[in-house]
Amino acid sequence: MAHRPAVEIIDALLNDCRRHLGAEQPPDDVTVVVVRRGKTAGAGIHGMKDSGRASGKIELVSTVQIEVDDELLEKLDRLGPDPSSRRSEFISMAIRKALWELEEKETAAAYARQPDSEDDAYVDPDSWEPS
User: Fold this and answer.
1) Nearest 10 degrees: CA dihedral of 13, 14, 15, 21?
2) Which pLDDT tens digit goes with each residue over 63-74?
3) pTM for the full model?
4) 33: number of Cβ within 10 Å
5) All structural domains of the chain with their residue ranges
6) Handedness of CA 26, 27, 31, 34 (dihedral sign)
7) 110 alpha carbon, distance to own chain's centre
């Protein structure tokens, strides 16, 4: 199956999961991430998130293929969440944190370029007191 496009692998996994569950609802959301290990040609990757809840709907989500070296993957396996459950959530949180830090740096740089004046920073202390 390793040679098949990621979208086909995801489709097959979700179909098998649905067949296995039958009429039962999944106990939780099902997220599938396909990660190719080693050198790749950089082919596009697509994904689906099967919410499986009462509606049984499948929402399309963007899936990003990342390449990591063996040392980083070993650390992720050792320190990160169980690969079968929350790895994509963990990676998404790490990306959000990194982006937030970049936004904070951009904001700090903007204030350094154009700092607030004393007039901008004035606050009337009486406005904080109950009337």
Assistant:
1) 110
2) 777 888 889 888
3) 0.45
4) 19
5) 1-67, 68-114
6) negative
7) 28
